[in-house]
Amino acid sequence: MMVVSYRIGGQAPHLPWFLRRLAAQGLAAAPEGDQPGRLPADWAGLEFADCWLDLGRDGDQALAERAARCRDAGLSFVELAGGWAPPGAEFGFILLVGDPPPPGAPGRLALDALAPQPGCWLHSGPIHSARFCQRAFDALMHAGRAAMPEPDSQPRALEWEAILQKQWMLAGKLRQLAEAYLTERIGLLPPYSAPLPKTAVHYAANLARTIMLALPDSRDWAALQNELAAHLQSRDDARK
Length: 240
Fold this sequence. Notes:
Blueprint: E1 2-7, H1 14-24, E2 27-29, E3 45-47, E4 51-54, H2 60-72, E5 76-81, H3 88-91, E6 96-98, H4 106-114, E7 122-125, H5 129-146, H6 160-186, H7 203-214, H8 221-239
Parallel strand pairs: 1-2, 4-5, 6-7
Antiparallel strand pairs: 1-3, 3-4, 5-6
């Protein structure tokens, strides 16, 4: 049974769920106070001998500052993101992992224990990539749910124009998110010349690039909407 040290600080309701999952998988947690912590006590995460698994949900700048503090302390920094809920303590958590520890490291064993199955977690890329993927997935899920109104007992016509406008707005925000990730973290926007730059060869960069290439620029929306309206009008005229 491996022993890990931990601390709970700030607003982190998911930490107890993680600790229960680790204990259920045979990874015992060291009692608090056994060893002095090398990092601030209010950080949310798990501290191992060689790395820090960061579970914070604050801003990107705070994440970068924690990563720098870990480097100064001689610890590698691992970013974790995901939509975590209490059932994960029993069944495992969806984990998006930025800069995971190497195979065999204590932090890697913890990732395998936290996931539904060993290795069943996503290596999203370097630090900041896990947060980007979570934001993109959340946006896509929201767009899917918002595409149709909630069902009720009364039949009613769908307001297609309002639905499309909402989808265009969500698509624009998702494209902006992808563009910001590629600009800030990669320093390049597609299309890229082959072969791809090494900084762009990871899951989050591929996801961001796909979003940018698949979704239209917001400046083209009006033209696309007019084209769609003209197509629908011509179809209706042909049916008369």
